[in-house]
Design a protein that fits this description.
Rossmann fold, 17 helices, 44% helix, Glycos_transf_N, coiled coil, lipid IVA 3-deoxy-D-manno-octulosonic acid transferase, transferase
Length: 462
């Protein structure tokens, strides 16, 4: 205990340096956010939320979304822990960047009931400022990779993180190994509890009538075509996808390849390049239909990926075909009943792949690169039986590993953050049981939070 106290005393000095540095760089951060907005990497209208400024003055109910940039995916499955258990009257805000000015502005305006951070999102200003205001903190799906552990184990960094971790009321790690690393960094053992992997918190969801109409229309547009989709594609990965498409279309003349880039601007750049090559491409943001001559459909819009998984039998998950990348969540595609493929570079998602393939060997097909991806897709597009077996295995594996995770994590939250018995918390704080929703910067806040005029805050990473 004395050792921990000594390190935490040094952490106070380390944080003072961090906070001073964040004040110095604040003007540069403002310029960075403006630049990212111009590049399509920040929300066109709500970018000021990243600087801690409310987008709805006078409102006092908020569920901030991830601190990271919105992606074509469902957003953060982590917010499913409370989403739709809570009232529809809540507004949504992006979490602030970790400058002292942005955090102070955000917390000063919203005055939240709790702060939920995700995975490795350990932001000193947000953590210390929340603790100073008496706001309880939780780290959900807590992750500490070997690389991060080594970085945090350096003397100055160790003093800072040991002090940060002491401010939490709950740390819910992904595994025993992660839990040990947090304890070695002096996290109090009594706050470490296991609940399950929230990346599985997707499940079934209701599609609004307008989106359902669009979905049915898309299904009709590709009804007589062979279809596969490459989702969450990063810069550089489009070359892999397009090379595979060129080979496949030689065999299957009625093929449609759907490409969903990680960032909308990237999608428009791909479409422009393909049109210059006189390749028939349709762009979703332009409301262009998939005609009989369309061979590539590019989705350059936000918040539709989970819905789009319903129109494709095959989903290739991007962020996994270049060495500097580390994969993306497979569960949305598996939940939708797609045959799931991914590349070799999957980072911590390897844990998810192992879990699913242990239960169902055919649930995830991890290929070594472009050539193996091409062969895998040839097999699936040409063999209806093999395709159906993969789709069924993916859905069954997802169902097996996802069961009860939301409930278990919610129980931890009610016990350690809300400090109420789970049933009482559900009665006073929630509106409905397990939620699944569209996301991408969307969420909801709680009945109790609304009645008290104070929001519950969720910040997170991907």
């Amino acid at each position: 205990m004395a050792v921990a106290e000594r390190w935490r005393a040094r952490g106070t000095a380390a944080y003072a340096m961090y906070r001073a540095a964040s004040r110095v760089v604040s003007p540069l951060v403002y310029l960075l956010v403006r630049w990212r907005r111009l590049r399509g990497l920040e929300h066109r209208v709500r970018w000021r939320e990243r600087l801690g400024e409310p987008s709805a003055p006078g409102q006092r109910r908020v569920l901030p979304s991830s601190g990271s940039t919105p992606s074509p995916s469902v957003g953060n499955p982590y917010s499913e822990v409370i989403k739709e258990r809570l009232p529809s009257s809540v507004i949504y805000q992006f979490a602030p960047l970790d400058t002292s000015a942005a955090v102070d502005k955000f917390l000063g305006y919203w005055n939240p009931d709790a702060v939920f951070l995700i995975e490795s999102e350990l932001w000193p200003n947000l953590i210390f400022s929340s603790a100073e205001k008496g706001i309880p903190l939780a780290l959900l799906n807590a992750r500490m990779s070997v690389k991060s552990f080594k970085l945090w184990s350096k003397p100055l960094a160790w003093s800072l993180i040991s002090l940060m971790l002491s401010k939490f009321s709950l740390i819910a790690p992904l595994s025993t190994v992660e839990a040990i690393r947090f304890q070695l960094l002096l996290a109090p053992p009594f706050i470490i509890n296991f609940g399950g992997d929230l990346k599985y918190a997707v499940g079934d969801f209701d599609v609004p009538q307008k989106e359902l109409t669009i979905l049915e229309d898309l299904k009709l547009q590709v009804a007589s075509r062979r279809v596969w989709m490459a989702s969450s594609i990063h810069y550089g990965e489009e070359e892999v996808v397009l090379q595979v498409h060129r080979e496949l279309v030689k065999i299957y003349s009625n093929l449609v390849t759907i490409i969903v880039p990680r960032h909308p601007l990237h999608g428009r750049q791909i479409a422009r390049a393909l049109k210059q090559q006189e390749i028939s491409v349709a762009l979703r943001s332009n409301v262009e239909r998939i005609s009989s001559g369309t061979v590539i459909y590019i989705v350059d819009t936000l918040g539709e990926l989970r819905t789009l998984y319903r129109i494709t039998p095959i989903a290739v998950i991007g962020g996994s075909f270049l060495p500097e990348l580390s994969g993306h969540n497979l569960s949305e595609a598996a939940a939708a009943g797609c045959a799931v493929l991914t590349g070799p570079f999957v980072g911590h998602f390897s844990h998810m792949i192992r879990q699913m393939t242990t239960l169902e060997r055919l649930s995830v097909w991890q290929v070594s690169g472009r050539e193996e991806l091409e062969e895998a897709l040839k097999q699936l597009l040409g063999d209806a039986g093999a395709l159906e077996a993969r789709r069924r295995a993916a859905k069954q594996a997802f169902s097996a590993v996802s069961g009860g995770v939301v409930g278990r994590v919610w129980e931890l939250i009610t016990a350690h953050i809300l400090r109420e018995p789970p049933q009482k918390a559900l009665e006073s704080f929630c509106l409905s049981p397990d939620a699944a929703g569209e996301g991408r910067g969307d969420g909801a806040a709680g009945r109790r939070a609304v009645s008290e005029g104070r929001p519950t805050v969720v910040g997170g990473g991907e």
